[in-house]
Each structure stands twice: as C-alpha cells, then as structure tokens.
Write a structure and sequence with these properties.
- By secondary structure, the chain is α+β, with helices and mostly antiparallel strands.
- The protein is 25% helix and 18% strand.
- Strands 1, 2, 4, 5, 7 and 8 form a six-stranded antiparallel β-sheet that branches. Strands 3-6 form a two-stranded antiparallel sheet.
- β7 and β8 form a beta hairpin.
- The chain is elongated and about 110 Å long.
- The N and C termini lie far apart (153 Å).
C-alpha cells in the first residue's frame, strides 16, 4: 500500500473510511432482493403429493376381482346357452312282449250303440241302466314262442262320462260279475278251435271315457292250467294298447 505525501514532503497519515457503527438494529447479513416471480429457468416443478393410503384392497386387486367376475359370468352364460340349446333326449320306446296282427275277419271293427245287448252277468244289468255311447270290437292274433296262435278280442266301451267309465271299469275287474262278450263268443268273428276267449286270460284299462276290455286264448292250451292262464293274461295285458287306436 502507498501513502500519499504532504506538501511539506512528509508522509501523510493514511485515512480510512469510517467504521460502521455496531448497531444491533443493522443486520449483519444483507440479502439481495429477489423478484416476486422467479425466472422460468429457475422454477422447479414440485413432485405430486402421494395418494392417500386406503385401508381396502388396492386398485389392481379390484381390477383382478372384476375381471374374474366377468369371466365367471361369461362362462355361466356359455354353459346356460349349451344347456338351453341341448336337444331333448328322445322319448323312451315302450318295450312290448308280443307282436299283434289284425285278423282277416272281420275286416273292419264291429260297432254297436247297444252295449247291454252284447254283455252278460252284472255287467249286462249295469249297461242296461247306465247307457254307453258306443261299443267297438275287433280280433287280433299273435304267435307265441312255441309257435301257437293266440287270439285276442279287443272291446272298447265308450261311456257318456268319466264317472260312468270308472264304475264300469271297477265292475268288470271283479270276479263273477260278467263282462262285455268277446267278439268270438258273440259270433261276430271266428277263431279255429275256439267258441269263446273268456276261458283264457283277461285284462282291462280305462282311458278317460273309454274302458278297454281284452280276452285272449289259444286252441292248444298249456298242460298246466295255471301257467296257461298267466300266459294269456300277459297277452291280454300287452294287447290293451291296441284299444287306443281301434277303428
């Protein structure tokens, strides 16, 4: 540092700027003023606040559950569609023991409106007071396992009401109450070696107002009367179905 000289040639005492006052009101640190808005280059984007914590399942879990529900619903709809469009199983075919053939004579069913005139026993008396609407009869044959020919008389008695049909059905099923005469006994058809079929096997059924009565027999009988009767009952029971479409 150099010191200036006075006019007398002597070095003058150096002078210094005044010392700042030690005033507590004067801040020891001076901050420069900053603008209210920082320049674009100095701005920093604050990171977004973290999402609040939830006590329930996370969104990813919810999405997975929703997807599982949708898949299950679609699978259920697919299964239902398969079930709904599944074709119905075919109806079971009835198994029959015997095969029947319409006898050549009579060529057509024998019809009559006077049922009492073609009946006997208590059945005749019942039909005399409880008038039927129509009697239809026909003759059928079937071949047994041993080659014998069995003849079956089919009689369909149509009554005027369901109650009358029920009363007739219950009557003819009892022993020793008579019945409607079979077509061979009534001489409306012939069966070689037989004058009637009532000595063989009997069966009856009711379909609303119709009572179906079947009697079957063979000219050559089984040596065992009980076995013969049981076999003829099986033939008559199987022939009941023929009465539904008898014309």
């Amino acid at each position: 540092m150099s010191f200036p000289e006075s006019s007398s040639g002597r070095r003058a005492t150096p002078t210094f700027p005044p010392r700042p006052l030690d005033d507590s009101r004067t801040p020891s640190l001076i901050l420069s003023a900053l603008p209210d808005v920082l320049p674009e280059s100095l701005r920093r984007e604050e990171p977004p606040a973290p999402p609040p914590q939830r006590s329930g399942p996370s969104s990813a879990t919810v999405v997975k559950i929703a997807a599982a529900v949708v898949v299950a619903a679609l699978v259920g709809l697919g299964v239902w569609a398969l079930i709904d469009t599944e074709p119905a199983p075919p109806a079971p075919v009835a198994q029959h023991e015997f095969t029947f053939t319409r006898a050549a004579q009579p060529a057509a069913a024998v019809l009559d409106s006077d049922c009492a005139d073609h009946a006997y026993g208590q059945t005749k008396r019942f039909l005399a007071t409880t008038v039927c609407q129509q009697l239809t009869r026909a003759l059928f044959t079937t071949t047994l396992s041993d080659g014998r020919i069995a003849y079956s008389s089919i009689a369909v008695v149509r009554m005027r009401s369901d109650a009358d049909a029920t009363a007739l059905f219950e009557l003819v099923r009892k022993d020793d109450t008579g019945s409607v005469a079979d077509i061979v006994r009534d001489r409306a058809a012939t069966a070689p070696g037989l004058d009637r079929l009532s000595r063989g096997g009997f069966a009856a059924a009711r379909h609303e107002r119709d009572v179906v009565i079947v009697e079957s027999d063979t000219a050559a009988k089984d040596p065992d009367p009980e076995a013969h009767r049981n076999e003829m009952k099986r033939v008559s029971s199987d022939a009941l179905r023929l009465g539904r479409d008898l014309k």
